[in-house]
Every structure is written in structure tokens, then in C-alpha cells.
């Protein structure tokens, strides 16, 4: 049986998530990621999540572990996409201030992407990660996906 990269990618994703949390709450880490470097862990987090999602999607077996891993990957990948689209639609809304209907529509879309990026994706990531870790521990320290 061939060994999968999925557990390695999953644990790397968890480590990057911890680095992102430290970026907000630990002063020493805050000093490391100043200016544009602030985005580096977030970009790595999203790219790692997208890789996890597609590697898990490629697996033939169907299990609850696969669903949790796909949720984890999709949520972490969607985080950066949600931030980017929020900012893009906010910029478009400010450009179209003189067109009332279009402005209100773009405002609603940018608020929706803001909520997706700041509420939905982090909660979905935590559900997927905690579910994957619980199944990992429950099944004698091995992922059921491989």
C-alpha cells in the first residue's frame, strides 16, 4: 500500500494555522511578520488547504474522515479567496457610488464575502480539523483515507 501525503499536508496546515493565530496574539511572532509579510502565512495556509482538498478528493475510498479532510481543505482555501473577493467587491462598490442599484448590490456582495471569510471559513476549518484529529486518535493514530 502506497503512503499518502494527506497526513503530512494536514499537519502542515494545522501548524500554519497555529502560526496565524500567533501572528495575532504573540508579540514576538508579530515582529516577524510586519508589512507585506503579514500575508505570507495566510497565503501558505490557503494554498496548503487547496492542496489538501484536491489530494483528498482524488482518493477512491469514501469515509467520514475524507469528508472532514475535504471540509478542512475547502475552508482554509476559501479563507483567502473570501478575503480577496471581499476587497475586490468593496473596491468596485466605491467606484460605483453614483449608480445606486449597482452600489447597493456590490455592497451586499462584499459584506457576504466578508462574513464568509471571517465567520464561515474559520468555523468550518475548526469543525473539519477537530473532526479529523478525533478520527485520527480514535482509529489508532492513522488516517482512514489511506
Please characterize this protein's 3D structure.
The protein is an all-alpha fold. It has one domain (6-138). It contains five helices and no strands. Helix 3 (40-58) crosses helix 4 (64-95) and helix 4 runs antiparallel to helix 5 (100-138). The chain is globular and about 60 Å long.
For this entry, give a set of tags:
146 residues, mainly alpha, 5 helices, globular
What's this entry about, in short?
The chain has 146 residues and is mainly alpha-helical.
Fraction of residues in H or I helices: over 70%
Portion of residues in beta strands equals under 5%
The pLDDT mean sits at 89
What profile does the largest beta sheet have? none
Low-confidence spans: none
SSE order, one letter for each helix or strand: HHHHH
Ends apart, CA distance between termini: 8 Å
Total number of distinct structural domains: 1
Counting DSSP E segments of at least 2 residues, the number of strands comes to 0
- Globally, the shape reads globular
Compute the CA-based radius of gyration: 18 Å
Total count of helical runs of at least 4 residues: 5
Alpha-beta classification:
mainly alpha
Summarize the topology.
Layout: H1 6-25, H2 27-32, H3 40-58, H4 64-95, H5 100-138
Helix pairs in contact: 1-3, 3-4, 4-5
Amino acid at each position: 500500500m502506497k503512503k499518502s501525503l494527506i497526513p503530512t499536508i494536514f499537519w502542515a496546515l494545522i501548524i500554519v494555522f497555529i502560526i496565524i493565530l500567533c501572528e495575532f496574539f504573540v508579540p514576538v511572532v508579530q515582529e516577524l511578520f510586519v508589512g507585506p509579510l503579514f500575508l505570507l502565512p495566510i497565503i501558505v495556509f490557503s494554498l496548503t488547504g487547496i492542496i489538501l482538498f484536491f489530494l483528498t478528493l482524488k482518493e477512491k475510498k469514501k469515509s467520514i474522515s475524507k469528508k472532514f479532510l475535504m471540509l478542512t481543505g475547502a475552508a482554509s482555501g476559501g479563507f483567502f479567496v473570501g478575503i480577496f473577493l471581499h476587497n475586490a467587491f468593496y473596491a468596485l462598490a466605491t467606484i460605483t457610488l453614483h449608480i445606486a442599484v449597482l452600489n447597493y448590490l456590490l455592497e451586499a456582495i462584499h459584506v457576504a464575502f466578508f462574513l464568509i471569510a471571517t465567520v464561515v471559513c474559520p468555523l468550518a476549518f475548526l469543525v473539519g480539523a477537530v473532526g479529523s484529529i478525533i478520527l485520527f486518535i480514535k482509529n489508532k493514530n492513522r488516517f482512514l483515507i489511506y
